[in-house]
Amino acid sequence: MHEATRRTADHLNPALVGLLGTLGFGRVFVSAEGDRLVDAEGRSYLDLLAGFGAVPLGHNPPRLVEGLRTAATEGLPHLVHTGPPVRAASLAEALASRVPQLPVAMLSLSGSEAVESALKLARAATGRPGLLACELGFHGLGWGALSVLGVRRFREPLEPLLPGARFVPFGDADAVERALRDRDVAAFVVEPIQAEGGVRIPPPGYLARVAELCRRAGTLLVVDEVQTGLGRCGAFSVALADGVVPDVLVLGKALGGGLLPVSAALTTRALHERAFSGERFDLHGSTYGTYALGASVALEVLAAVDELGLAQRSTALGERLVLALRERLAGHPFVREVRGRGLLVGIELGATGARLVDRLAPGLVDTVAERAFGQWVAAELLEAGILVQPASQRWNVVRLEPPLTVDEGALLAAVDTIGEVLDRYRDLRTLLAALTARLGAQWWNGGEFR
Ligand SMILES: Cc1ncc(COP(=O)(O)O)c(C=O)c1O
After folding, report:
1. Whole-model pTM above 0.85?
2. Residue boundaries of the structural domains of the chain
3. In this structure, how many other beta carbons lie within 10 angstroms of the beta carbon of residue 287?
4. What is the pLDDT of residue 346?
5. Does residue 191's CB lie within 6 angstroms of at least one atom of ligand 1?
């Protein structure tokens, strides 16, 4: 057993090590460069996960590493709380130059914290108690973010959470209209595309309609682009690209370039003043929220995304990827749909009605797909040198989310490998036999991590 595995099991997260072993993810990655990861045994992998979207420029991109080295050694005051934070102020201005409609940034470290900023702003600015969010929405695991996270399994063991949070189905604007009727909702929190919820794309016009409903109800529209933003889906912001200006735009993950945590909730001057002016100036903030190193890296990320045209590249490459996948996987009895926007792509597995067992027992096929098939495909792809993961709240959706700088040839070659892996499982019996053999072997060797 690798020392890092033992240490993780002993001191970090025992359950995770057990689960990873069971799922066949028992590899220890020890080095990384660009779109490649290398494990302790020297095997190389194409990274199509990119730290759940947090590694936009690839691993250890020289530009960021160099920028960080400079920032760390140029003698900046990294944390001073009695004057303007010089580098963080530049970051806030750089963000405002990209979203002039939302010129004030509340900076923090994690996506979850940026969602907290948005929730606190909404409550403080509206004086309303209610919060509305979408089923299967994912916004992070801090108490506030968790309160609007649309997966009961995450919330229930920790309740009571923030009171007043309610949920509507994603993509259903009529449900939003009904939920806002009492005019007691401070914010509607929504992702433009549900990434962890299964790369789900709402019907056209959904965001524009809910924006209008929120405006009429006096509810703030909080668009969480922690995963979809910063070029991932072909634009700085999906909402803005679709002509919707939210009251709060939440960014995270990629903003720190995969090196340092940086997140932001962008809003209007008027709302920020309403929530936090005068004596309320210190109702929100955190010691490290405006740290200079994070701001330096984020500034470099923003510049690189622009200079390298990564949003446009993401659109072009994403379209090619989706087309190639659709072509390669056409007619597969368990591939329901390939969908995506930019370089956030999902392959949905499940019953398609193409085989007799589907028609006789569609529930069985879907249960296997939801519980195991996506993870199984991911495990087989890992053996083939490709790192992917299903969407965390929809295991039947294999999510492809490479660095935005991914090598085009390698990405398109991965389509063939994905096709080959899926071709091994064109009927339920073969899939169940493989899963049983794997779980049996795992049990036999005492759950060893491999
Ligand atoms: C849309 C979205 N919002 C918020 C978060 C939470 O971000 P963090 O893990 O940095 O708290 C995530 C994380 O996956 C996310 O996908």
Report:
1. yes
2. 3-61+309-444, 62-307
3. 8
4. 98
5. yes
The reply to whether ligand 1 has any atom less than 6 angstroms from the CB of 425 is no
Distance between Cα 426 and ligand 1 center (Å):
34
CATH of the domain spanning 62-307, picked from 3.40.50.2300, 1.10.150.20, 2.40.37.20, 3.40.640.10: 3.40.640.10
- The CA 202 to ligand 1 mean position distance, Å, reads 19
pLDDT at residue 326 in the model: 98
Our answer on whether the CB atom of 206 is closer than 6 Å to any ligand 1 atom is no
The segments of the chain whose pLDDT lies below 70 read 22-24, 358, 442-450
The runs of H, that is alpha helices, within 265-384 are 269-276, 292-307, 310-329, 356-360, 362-368, 374-383
Please report the pLDDT score of residue 309 as a whole number. 98
pLDDT for 360-372, tens place per residue? 777 887 887 787 8
Distance 441 CA to ligand 1 centre (A): 35
Token pair 């691993």 is found at 59
CA-proximal residue: ligand 1, atom 16 (nearest): 227
Q: Is 346 in the pocket of ligand 1 (CB under 6 A)?
A: no
Please state the three-class secondary structure of 158-180 as a single string: HCCCCCCEEEECCCCHHHHHHHC
* Å from CA of 19 to ligand 1 middle: 21
CATH of 3-61+309-444, one of 3.40.50.720, 3.30.420.10, 3.90.1150.10, 3.40.50.20: 3.90.1150.10
